[in-house]
Every structure is written in structure tokens, then in C-alpha cells.
Automatic annotation (TrEMBL):
Protein name: Caspase family p20 domain-containing protein
UniProt domain Caspase family p20: residue ranges: 10-133
Gene Ontology MF, one: cysteine-type endopeptidase activity
Highest taxon listed in the record's lineage: Eukaryota
One of the GO BP terms on file: proteolysis
High-level lineage: Eukaryota, Metazoa, Chordata, Tunicata, Ascidiacea
Family assignment from sequence similarity: Belongs to the peptidase C14A family.
InterPro entries: Caspase-like_dom_sf, Caspase-related_regulators, Pept_C14_caspase, Pept_C14_p20, Pept_C14A
SUPFAM superfamilies registered for this protein in UniProt: Caspase-like (SSF52129)
Length: 162
């Protein structure tokens, strides 16, 4: 595998979608602190940061199209991070209560037919609950010295032991 090279004049693009005001569905308590911390760290890593908050389903879909069309020239990397309510079907909710497919509308536009990102890293992180009921927090130790490879990211099942 060839190492990826970054040109000096290229910056990464970090898109943070932070949906936290859901009207009757309530709000994501504490997510503002998470969003601030994530944004502060990424800003130090040679990324331009775009923060979008409280988007509807239609606004999320339009944003992804706009990012693909207008924001990817001279980028060494795309990193999308979503903080939102979600479902078990790998979907997130817009603040209007309508679902957005993570695969179809957030990942796919950048994985297929996106010449600006050919052979460049594309990172997608989704920090979302997976249903209406809350689950207990789980804490795990991960051996960072282990040789690990990842193939496909899947949701954590509700029956994960604590």
C-alpha cells in the first residue's frame, strides 16, 4: 500500500453536524460540550471546520450535495462527524423528525463519483443513540498497542455487556 502524501497548501475539511434541539422529542443534553471539544481539537489539526447545527432532513441532504460541489478543492482529507438522535437502521434524525440514511446521504456522495477525493482519506463518525430508549453507559479498555484493522463499522448492539 502506498502512503498518502499531503501537499503543503492543502487543508483537511471537517464537517460537524450537530443536531440537538428536537422540539417535542427533547434535546441532546451535554452534546454542546462534546461538540465544542471536538471542534477545538480538530481546529488544531490543519482542518478547516464547518459547523452546522439543528438541520432538518432536507437541509442535511442539501448540505452534503453543497459540500461535494463547492468545498472539496485542494483538500487532503474529508472528515464528517455527526452528533444527533438516531435509529438502529443506520439513520439519523433531522430536527424535523425525518430520518436521513447515513450510508445513502452522508457517506455515498463522497465515496462514489467524487474525483476531488480520489485516493484521499474520507472519515465518517456518527455519535447517535439508536432508538427511543436510553442505554446504560459502557466503558471498555482498548489495548492501543494491539495491531488492529477495521473493515466495516456497525452499530453497537443494545445487549452489550457492561
Amino acid at each position: 500500500m502506498q502512503p498518502y502524501s499531503k501537499h503543503v497548501d492543502e487543508k483537511g475539511l471537517f464537517l460537524l453536524i450537530h443536531n440537538f434541539k428536537y422540539g417535542d422529542r427533547g434535546s441532546l443534553k451535554g452534546s454542546q460540550k462534546d461538540a465544542d471539544a471536538i471542534r477545538d481539537v480538530v481546529a488544531k489539526l490543519d482542518f478547516d471546520v464547518i459547523l452546522k447545527e439543528n438541520l432538518t432532513e432536507e437541509q442535511i441532504i442539501c448540505l452534503m450535495k453543497d459540500i461535494k460541489k463547492n468545498e472539496l478543492n485542494n483538500r487532503f482529507c474529508l472528515w464528517v462527524y455527526v452528533l444527533a438522535h438516531g435509529t438502529k437502521g443506520q439513520q439519523i434524525y433531522g430536527v424535523d423528525g425525518k430520518c436521513v440514511s447515513v450510508r445513502e446521504h452522508i457517506m455515498k456522495p463522497f465515496l462514489h463519483n467524487c474525483s476531488q477525493l480520489t485516493n484521499k482519506p474520507k472519515l465518517f463518525f456518527v455519535d447517535a443513540c439508536q432508538g427511543a430508549t436510553s442505554t446504560a453507559q459502557t466503558s471498555r479498555h482498548i489495548d492501543s498497542t494491539a495491531d488492529t484493522t477495521f473493515s466495516e463499522v456497525r452499530g453497537v448492539p443494545d445487549n452489550t455487556p457492561t
